[in-house]
Amino acid sequence: MGNVLCAAIFWLGAGIALALAQSQTPEEFEVASIKPSPPPETTPIVSILSRPGGRWSAENVTVVDLLRYAYPEYSSDGQIVGAPDWTQVSRFHVNAVAEGSPPAQSYRLKVKALIRERFAFNYHVEQRPIEIYVLNTVRPDGQLRGALQPATIDCEAWRASLAKGSEAVEPLTPSGKPACRMSTQREGAAILLSSGSRTMDAIASVIEGFIQPKLPVRNGTQLMGQFYGELRFAIPQNTLNATGTEPETREQTLIDGLREQWGLKVERSRLQTDVMVIDRVERPSPN
Fold it and tell me: Does the predicted model carry a pTM greater than 0.85?
């Protein structure tokens, strides 16, 4: 009888401990503060950062900014629908602390939980047609222009050696440029994009980060293998300089640069895809 009672007490205690552990899920921040951003004097700069010690912050973000961070699969224009106007206008400062030092990728889960709890957020997914860009070659035979070249360097082997702690030097292209990394550099009113070895799918994703209006970019080239090259194009029109005005430039637009320098074009189309339909969202609860 005593053994049975002890066993019952043990399992009861284990159950309580499990319940407590589940109530303090690692998918949530330990503490979070959400406050309205002060009125900006110029165009607000959006900043989302994770720092050592489990600290995470977002400045001048709208609810839609937070949703696109937490749900990157719905980050393109047209993939979040039903949002009230204030979710795209009202801006907030968010400061949160997680237990320990969680990996960077875990913060998206924590932000999801924060949005659900503090903004009373709920949604469902539907298939709807949205506008996209399709990336294709200008020439029907798939021939590219000289600034974009087929890559023959094995960057995967170099990346694998880095992952194992090697200090292997990054290989270079025939012109002496880093062959495996992607970098952007501002030169006056232009952006210089240096793309190391990338598939056309990856190049389409890179272009998506710069194209305006922001729509998904899908690869339609049917080109296999990897490519590298440099692309120079004007800073997007909605980017303001330090004086709050649009920079004057005679640089090629991104669309013209792709065509003239790389032999690629982007064309609008429509795609049936998943969209986030917001069922409920409220202004944040008090801290």
Answer: no
